[in-house]
């Protein structure tokens, strides 16, 4: 890496590589293949060109414009709008992690199951109430650790993250090479025909695009690197385009490899939960290494998921509360103990996540259905925080002459506003249609309606809590006067 005196030492290829490691993973390939089959290859190409590239370039401009903003999108909103909108952005960023935190303990349990049993029986045979009871215990342990400021897992997670990235690339290489080296059969028929990859743009298809948005979202992680780039106006967009190409190639080739290993016309029901492990087990058998690849992947996944759980308990809450405005956040949430920990914020997190863990087990019977539902719920809720990125960019486009930036995505304010509006509407559209359950209504109408109700109620309750908080805070401020 080259260096300069002003600490702008990142080149376009550095930006692309760092961003790729932060944004992408094998589970993005598995989850979307489970939803769409081989037609997901065309979906990946479309989502990259129409959504991911403009999304990352907007984030680049916002990051370059507000170089000293430490609160991410909430800081952007505070500069561009009012404190109230900044609060709502910060609240959204924190609250969407609740279903995410509820899902991670399941992933840890599945990883341990494959590590010690080398099969997917845990997912297919364990009652949901048993899984959720264990998930609750795991979550509460991590919540307790977060209140003690334990950071060891974060460091271990960085190493595990590199391991997961390596395994993702290895999966693509081995999956594509297996028919030629190991002489394995190709599971999906007609992979040589274009029609196999063409989506049917019907209602069912559009209910699955929230998972694609969920997979490529989170580009705001990239914003701190804009001002570390040697020539932001030229090299940052070049890095983002390279990132999009790398992600698209990984998604397309990974999905193609999935089609070679699994029959895309008869996708296993447990593919979201067990697919990556099963794939490595099949590849291990092809290349005569047994379950070695499965065990390595399980260890990497357990460690990286544990680190993600620890970080996601702590970091979003700190971002939300560290610079909280007393006019919008009640004093009880802002109050810190002698160790500087906002203990009531952790308690609220614990209550909300516990509800998301416990309640679904009352209406969803099997572990596999529960895992699939919670993954899809995350694809509906998590992109809600991306909406604020596009709101911030639209506001920035309207005030483009007021702010200086080393990098500008679109100089024309009306065109820039149109890009922001397009990405906002597309994300909202994906979230709204994503609430439709992905199970067969005819096979289990009761569970279908239960999942639909949970998919609608959960985001509304999370948003409603954010609206109620300022009311409580306002009353407290009046009482203090």
UniProtKB/TrEMBL annotation:
Coiled coil: none annotated. It comes from the Bacteria. The keyword Signal does not apply. GO terms for cellular component: plasma membrane. The chain crosses the membrane at residues 12-30, 36-57, 129-147, 159-182, 202-219, 240-262, 345-367, 373-396, 417-436, 448-473. It is a multi-pass membrane protein. One of its GO terms (molecular function) is transmembrane transporter activity. Pfam families: AA_permease_2. The keyword Translocase does not apply. It is found in: Cell membrane. Keywords: Cell membrane, Membrane, Transmembrane, Transmembrane helix, Transport. This is Amino acid permease.
């Amino acid at each position: 890496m080259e260096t300069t005196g002003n600490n702008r030492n990142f080149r376009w290829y550095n930006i692309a590589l760092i961003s790729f490691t932060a944004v992408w993973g094998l589970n993005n390939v598995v989850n979307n293949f489970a939803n769409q089959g081989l037609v997901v290859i065309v979906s990946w190409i479309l989502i990259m060109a129409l959504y991911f590239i403009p999304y990352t370039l907007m984030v680049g401009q916002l990051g370059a414009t507000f170089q000293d903003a430490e609160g991410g999108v909430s800081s952007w909103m505070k500069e561009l709008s009012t404190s109230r909108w900044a609060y709502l952005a910060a609240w959204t960023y924190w609250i969407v992690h609740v279903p995410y935190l509820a899902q991670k303990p399941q992933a840890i349990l599945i990883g341990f199951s494959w590590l010690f049993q080398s099969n997917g029986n845990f997912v297919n045979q364990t009652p949901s109430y048993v899984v959720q009871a264990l998930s609750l215990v795991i979550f509460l342990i991590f919540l307790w650790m977060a209140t003690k400021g334990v950071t060891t897992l974060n460091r271990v997670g960085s190493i595990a993250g590199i391991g997961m990235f390596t395994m993702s690339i290895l999966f693509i290489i081995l999956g594509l090479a297996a028919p030629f080296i190991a002489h394995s059969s190709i599971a999906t028929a007609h992979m040589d025909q274009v029609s196999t990859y063409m989506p049917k743009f019907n209602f069912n298809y559009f209910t699955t695009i929230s998972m694609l948005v969920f997979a490529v979202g989170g580009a705001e992680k990239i914003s701190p690197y804009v001002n570390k780039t040697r020539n932001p106006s030229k090299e940052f967009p070049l890095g983002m385009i390279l990132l999009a190409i790398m992600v698209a190639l990984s998604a397309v080739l990974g999905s193609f490899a999935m089609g070679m290993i699994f029959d895309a016309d008869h996708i296993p029901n447990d593919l979201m939960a067990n697919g990556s492990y099963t794939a490595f087990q099949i590849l291990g058998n092809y290349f005569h290494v047994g379950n070695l690849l499965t065990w390595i992947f399980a260890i990497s996944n357990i460690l990286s998921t544990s680190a993600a759980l620890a970080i996601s308990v702590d970091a979003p809450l700190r971002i939300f509360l560290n610079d909280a405005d007393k006019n919008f956040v009640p004093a009880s949430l802002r109050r810190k103990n002698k160790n500087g920990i906002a203990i009531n914020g952790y308690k609220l997190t614990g209550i909300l996540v516990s509800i998301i863990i416990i309640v679904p087990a009352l209406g969803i019977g099997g572990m596999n259905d529960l895992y699939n539902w919670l993954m899809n719920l995350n694809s509906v809720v998590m992109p809600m925080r991306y909406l604020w990125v596009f709101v911030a960019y639209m506001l920035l486009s309207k005030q483009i002459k007021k702010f200086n930036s080393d990098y500008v995505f679109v100089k024309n304010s009306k065109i820039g506003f149109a890009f922001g509006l397009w990405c906002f509407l597309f994300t909202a559209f994906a979230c709204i249609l994503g609430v439709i359950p992905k199970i067969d209504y005819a096979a289990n109408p009761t569970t279908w309606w239960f999942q639909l109700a949970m998919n609608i109620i959960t985001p509304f309750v999370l948003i409603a809590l954010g609206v109620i908080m300022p009311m409580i805070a306002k009353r407290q401020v009046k009482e203090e006067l």
